[in-house]
Amino acid sequence: MNAQTQRLAVMAAVLVAIAIGFHVLTGSFLTAENLYNIAQQTAVVGIVASGMALIIVARQIDLAVGSLLGAVGVLMAWLQYSQGWSVVASLFAGLGLALAVGLFQGWLSAVIGIPSFVVTLGGLVSLRGVAFLVADGKTQPVTEPWLLALGGGLDGSLGERGSWLLGAAVIALIWAWQFVQRRARVRAGGAPDSRSDLIHGALGTLAVVVVVAVFNAYRIDGQGEGQGLPLPLVIWAAVVIALGFMAKHTRFGRYVYAIGGNPDAARLAGIPVRRVMIQLNLLLAALVALAAVVAMARLNAGTNSMGTGMELTVIAAAVIGGVSLAGGSGSVAGTVLGALIIQSIDSGLLLTDVSIGWRMVVLGQVLVAAVVFDRVVQK
Hints:
Blueprint: H1 3-26, H2 32-57, H3 65-81, H4 87-112, H5 116-134, E1 140-141, H6 145-149, H7 159-187, H8 194-216, H9 231-249, H10 251-261, H11 263-268, H12 273-299, E2 301-302, H13 310-320, H14 332-351, H15 356-378
Antiparallel strand pairs: 1-2
Helix pairs in contact: 1-14, 2-9, 2-10, 2-12, 2-13, 2-14, 3-4, 3-5, 3-12, 4-5, 4-12, 7-8, 9-10, 10-12, 13-14, 13-15, 14-15
């Protein structure tokens, strides 16, 4: 087991301990209803954190993601409500704004050479102003049913049958991937590790079955069928799987880690550092646009306050999940644990009637503790 896997195992153990501890204190933390709500509430942060992980791995930072989410979200809602645009056209307009901002910030950082901290700090302030100016600070309602379903809620889930079908597909994918990995090791001259493959496959299968069973157990007002997997969770999972594969098994992913390990060496090795950095910014911008759609659907409206302070939560999720602020190491999968740990602590403190002030104090110190842990691991 390598160091990164060990760290993920430690974070998973911490998450389990937090859940058990709060359930002992409240008696309601591990209920299907609370877990369902946590999954929905974490999805927006988790989607953006998966992209932020790669940004930090490449020794960059983006402080403007929260403000960009607010600007994109209110623009899409304003175009639908006040301008009469179709939903699809408004979504593409929001994506266009996000990509334009990502391209501009990436160009300033990668080509002009301005530190990403400075560029995105300016974006944090400016884009929040844009979010206010788009609709003059007015809330813009959203009414399209299929769009609202993307935010979860009563109609935003797969239901029991759909959840089991998706779970079965994921389990088949897990075992197929174990088979592909085994054949790759054999072709490379390595010895097949049947025991390890069996353990990984069994653990993945167990995790999928438990997750689907828990969400299927959640029923609203005594309804006969369980809610099943909420759509925000499904979207988040799809993003994590896609980015995780890209980071580990594509040339682009190898370039990102090489740049984070040593930018000068990567440049001398012929890696197009500037192009990769601009592509990274565009990728994160697209994920912010996707998260804005989910957030807008959850709120049933677009507001200029959407995403306020989210940049800190996103960075914290990445760091807690094992992404080193020094760059060069970390994983997309770790951000899932980081985001869940943050949301679980916040939800648990809320259930124990802790005031908002103390919750902010605790969450801030959790981030500090994660950075200290990262420094100890590096040493």
